[in-house]
């Protein structure tokens, strides 16, 4: 075979990968190509040593956002939904996923689901919560 044949074969292979690849590089999000609509936007006080439900369980949602107040810098512990396996059902000072003080986190429904979100605050703080559908 000639060098020209190898070059053409290589170009055809690269073109086939580009056109018919497995799609792993394309972004995937729960909102997809449809614009999400904001359903809830409210401030919520929590703490000290208090557990509250900031989002109720829903059949569907797109994205949930929790912002911890910049002024007091208090972290919170967050639990997402009702686990189907395991014994972690209530956040405490040591149990939950830490969201640092003075931060905003967007919890995409494709990753975190649309179950009830509970938070625990060691000290009094104010949260800004938003939910998109």
Describe this structure in words.
With 133 residues, the protein is α+β, with helices and mostly antiparallel strands. It has a single domain (32-132), classed as Jelly Rolls, CATH 2.60.120. The protein has two helices and eight strands. The strands form two sheets. It has a four-stranded antiparallel beta sheet. A four-stranded antiparallel beta sheet has the order 2-7-4-5, with no helix packed on it. The longest helix has 18 residues, at 3-20. The model is unreliable at 23-29 (pLDDT under 50).
List low-confidence stretches: 23-29
In total, how many domains does the architecture comprise? 1
Examine the secondary-structure arrangement and name the CATH architecture: Sandwich
Strand content: 35-45%
Main sheet makeup: 4 strands, antiparallel
Number of strands: 8
In round numbers, the mean pLDDT is 81
Distance between the termini: 59 Å
Supply the key terms.
2 helices; Jelly Rolls; 133 residues; elongated; alpha+beta; 4-stranded antiparallel beta sheet
């Amino acid at each position: 075979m000639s060098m020209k044949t190898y070059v053409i074969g290589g170009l055809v292979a690269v073109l086939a990968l580009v056109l018919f690849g497995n799609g792993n590089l394309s972004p995937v999000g729960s909102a997809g190509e449809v614009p999400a609509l904001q359903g809830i936007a409210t401030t919520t006080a929590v703490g000290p040593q208090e557990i509250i439900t900031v989002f109720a369980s829903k059949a569907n949602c797109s994205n949930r956002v929790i912002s911890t107040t910049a002024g007091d810098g208090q972290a919170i512990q967050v639990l997402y939904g009702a686990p189907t396996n395991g014994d972690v059902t209530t956040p405490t000072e040591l149990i939950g996923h830490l969201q640092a003080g003075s931060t905003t986190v967007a919890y995409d429904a494709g990753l975190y689901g649309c179950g009830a979100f509970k938070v625990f605050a060691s000290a009094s703080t104010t949260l800004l919560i938003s939910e998109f559908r």
